[in-house]
Specification:
3 helices; mainly beta; five-stranded mixed β-barrel; nine-stranded mixed barrel
């Protein structure tokens, strides 16, 4: 049975984003969970709200599923709220598809509210009229009103000894070494507006390193002199040169750059340069031609987990190298799906 409360503010999440001004005028951005993935930037992750209302519009697409719902506020007035979930690919892996709901359905939802005073939330949970609860995100989230749906949050994990298969997202990227911005980078970030400047809203795919920092599956394919990396988000493909010991002088520039790799035991080390992309992240941090990215992919002993560490050096915008980490896990049933972005 659907709970009756309309809007409930619940306890804050443990995710903290804080900014510290230091005497030199530089800014350090310290986060427990990095905010590069573009859907989470305009939302307050320190707060959860719940809404109970009627679905008035359904847009099932990539990069984000969007719903609208009519909600009655405490004064008895009807308000329209916009709800943003993960991609259609991500929700499908959680069992939630275009056919799961229709205009007129009465649902309960939970998520993070807009940090700009808008009637918008970043969806995490949806309770359907039949009492079934779904997660609207690929990121790990607890069930709120039920005990969950069997097999959705804990699929069987495979075992093996190779990096060469599809990896499913497990841990969203986190900051190890804070991003310390130069004054020029500070100014660019301050002028950046996620509602107008975010390239993903126009289905323009991000470059490195942001292309790897997403909660979607990736695949490694051994092609001898090269390793091909397929990334579900944006249907991006990287080639890692496993022959060259240095970036070739005539290597072309692109948004994904030119990558060379080597093995250090069970760890694949990848160095990328010649990156031609305006942004380091989805928060408006600029990126120069001097940027260098070093990645380390480390296979666990039983072959079920792939730990990831990325170090970014960009002197015009970062006063020191910034380091983030993440992880994928092997779930044999997971495959890379077509993405097909539709501009917002």
């Amino acid at each position: 049975m659907m709970p009756e409360a309309n809007v409930v503010i619940v306890s804050p999440r443990l995710v903290r984003n804080s900014f510290f001004i230091i005497p030199t005028g530089l800014i350090i951005a310290a986060t427990d969970v990095a905010i590069a993935h573009h859907s989470i930037v305009p939302f307050d992750q320190n707060t959860f709200i719940e809404l109970d209302g009627v679905v008035s519009e359904v847009l099932w697409r990539n990069p984000h599923v969007r719903l609208k719902m009519r909600v009655q506020n405490d004064a008895g007035e009807e308000e329209e709220w916009e709800l943003e979930g993960d991609s259609a690919n991500a929700t499908a892996r959680r069992g939630l598809t275009r056919d799961s709901m229709s205009v007129g359905n009465r649902i309960r939802v939970a998520g993070h509210p807009s940090n700009r005073g808008l009637r918008e939330i970043l969806l995490t949970n949806i309770l359907m009229p039949n009492g079934e609860e779904y997660l609207a995100t690929e990121r790990p989230r607890p069930w709120r009103w039920t005990e969950g749906r069997a097999g959705v949050t804990s699929p069987d994990t495979g075992s093996g000894s190779s990096i060469f298969h599809v990896w499913s997202f497990e841990v969203l990227h986190r900051v190890e070494e804070p991003f310390v911005f130069t004054p020029a980078a500070q100014a660019a970030r301050a002028a950046w507006d996620p509602f107008t400047d975010m390239l993903a809203l126009r289905c323009i795919a991000p470059g490195m390193p942001n292309a790897m920092l997403n909660p979607y599956p990736i695949e490694f394919i051994d092609e001898g002199n090269y390793i091909r990396v397929r990334i579900e988000q944006w249907e991006a493909t990287r080639l890692i040169d496993m022959v060259s010991e240095e970036i070739p002088e005539d290597a072309p520039s692109s948004s994904l750059g030119y990558a060379i790799g080597r093995w250090e035991g069970e760890t694949l080390v990848v160095e990328t340069a010649n990156i031609d992309d305006p942004y380091l992240d989805d928060a408006g941090t600029p990126m120069s031609e001097e940027v260098r990215v070093v990645e380390r992919f480390t296979l666990s002993e039983n072959g079920t987990r792939l730990d990831y560490e990325v170090t970014v050096t960009d002197p015009p915008n970062l006063t020191e190298p910034a380091v983030e980490d993440a992880a994928w896990r092997w779930v044999p049933s997971i495959e890379i799906s077509p993405y097909g972005c539709i501009p917002e």
